[in-house]
Amino acid sequence: MSKVTLRPSKESGHSPQPLDSQPSGSLPQPSAARPRVLCVFGTRPEVIKLAPVLRALKTSADLDTFVVSSGQHTSLLYPFLDFFGIQLNEDLQVMQPDQTPNEVCARVMSGLEPIIQREKPSLILVQGDTTTALAAALTGFHHRIPVGHVEAGLRSGNPLSPFPEEMNRRVVSQVATYHFAATTGNRSALLAEGVPETSIFVTGNPVVDSLQFILQNARPSPRAAELLQLAAGKKLIVLTTHRRESFGRVMRQHLRTLRDFVRQHDDIAAVFAVHPNPNVRAAAEAELAGQERFHLVEPLNYPDFVHLLQHAWLLVSDSGGIQEEAPTLRKPLLVLRSNTERPEAVESGVAILVGEDARPERLRELLNLALTDQAWAERVRTAVNPFGNGDSGEKIAGILHRELVVSVPRPVAAGTPASSARAKGAL
To answer: Residue 23: which residues within 8 A CB-CB, separation 6 or more?
Structure first.
């Protein structure tokens, strides 16, 4: 290719049955007689991981759900809502150009205030470590509403890495009532911080549910098929990078090393799904524009991205989500970070940490290892997925039903542990 440009993705023309099959149009208002779960999210990873939980909650005749998007992601978010069939009750539309995490947090909390007053939820459900999750959890604490935290207990060991996500999730853990941990390691991290055992539940990660659903039901769109055809007959590297701590020199050096590696091997091609952040776009254009067999594309819709990952020879990323997707898809992964809150991916043999000091020889060495180390390929092929079996959404919804309906709990402040034996232990 003489010139590489960022190209928009197209939605698949073969959408599967949505996870929430309620017809489009105006949403019925929740019944005041039933406990109400207020689910708050703002980014596409949150949607992907909460969709299986929302689907399972929708099957309960004894619980209402009220779904709010902060709009922390806009163009990245809405195709995922359509694909998973998630209908919003409210969209706070908080995003403004060049705003700080503080401004996002303040706008989310302000936007949730009238919703809390009007809907009077029995529980606020959040996922992960975004500014939206932090703001919603703090709102629950201020109103003495229990908070359920999906993907609880991830810890990198460094409060500043990833920034600000590591501190966001630590703060959410301080105010949450129910902690849905993906792994026993996450449970141990919470116990070490003094979180009561009776409020922690090991459920797996619902991203596995979503991946399985997509692989069983969705076909690649014409755009995804085009990308796969560009890499036909070659070893395909799929690259993503967007972490704030990688901006600037570190990211540019990683991209240069990958560019040189692809240049040196005619049988290798790469696809870089370029995050819309201006820092990422500038680095991609500066280091990779016009490079043969290095294709820069706009972020793909999630089904297409999963199909791209499934056809990859090697994944290279600083994304936390891809560290969960790689073991599920059994794909080798080089993590462009020096630490991880998902050590299970490394311990399983699927992922290797590269580091963030931008030493080109380290990344170059690991790229060559992927070419030559058959033992690593075998470990990846036979690895047991540490993040679950695809039933996490049902597990989390079942716990919420038991806690909010069957046990008929008294109102409890966020941060207060589940107090009875019904919540004890990991499932």
So the answer is: none
Domain range annotation of the chain = 36-206+390-423, 221-382
Q: Are 306 and 211 in contact (CB under 8 A)?
A: yes
Which residues of 147-282 form beta strands (DSSP E)? 147-152, 178-181, 200-202, 235-240, 268-273
> Which burial class, exposed, middle or buried, applies to 100 when counting CB atoms under 10 A from its CB (0-12, 13-18, 19+)?
exposed
Residues 6 or more apart from 279 whose CB is under 8 A from it? 247, 248, 251
Question: Could you please report the per-residue DSSP string of 79-119?
Answer: HHHHHHT---SEE-----TT--HHHHHHHHHHHHHHHHHHH
CATH, domain range 36-206+390-423: 3.40.50.2000
Read off the DSSP letter of residue 160: T
332 preceded by a cis bond (ω within 30 of 0): no
In whole angstroms, what separates CA 214 from the centre of its chain? 15
Q: Decide: 126 and 152 in contact? Cβ < 8 Å.
A: no
CATH number for the segment(s) 221-382: 3.40.50.2000
234: phi then psi, degrees, rounded to nearest 5 = -125, 160
Catalytic sites, residue numbers: 129, 151, 165, 242, 244, 275
What is the Cα–Cα distance from 151 to 173, expressed in whole angstroms?
10
Q: What is the mean pLDDT of the chain?
A: 86
DSSP symbols for 317-337 = E--HHHHHHHHHHT--EEESS
Could you give the C-alpha distances from 210 to 46, 128, 215, 217, in angstroms and in order? 12, 16, 9, 11
305-350 per-position pLDDT tens digit:
999 999 999 999 998 889 999 999 999 999 999 889 999 999 999 9
User: Coil, helix or strand for 273?
Assistant: strand
Query: From the centroid of its chain, how far is CA 223?
Result: 23
SS3 (DSSP) at 129: coil
Contact residues for 90 (Cβ-Cβ < 8 A; gap 6+): 66, 67, 68, 69, 111, 115
Q: Is 273:305 a contact under the CB 8 Å cutoff?
A: yes
Contact call for residues 173 and 190 (beta carbons, < 8 A): yes
The CA distance from 144 to 287, in Å, is 50
pTM of the full predicted structure? Answer: 0.81
Q: CB 197: neighbour CB atoms within 10 A?
A: 14
Whether 36-206+390-423 and 221-382 share one fold: the answer is: yes
pLDDT-flagged residues of the chain (< 70) = 1-32, 75-76, 356-359, 408-427
Q: Residue 282 has what pLDDT?
A: 93
- Give CA–CA dist 63/332, Å, rounded: 41
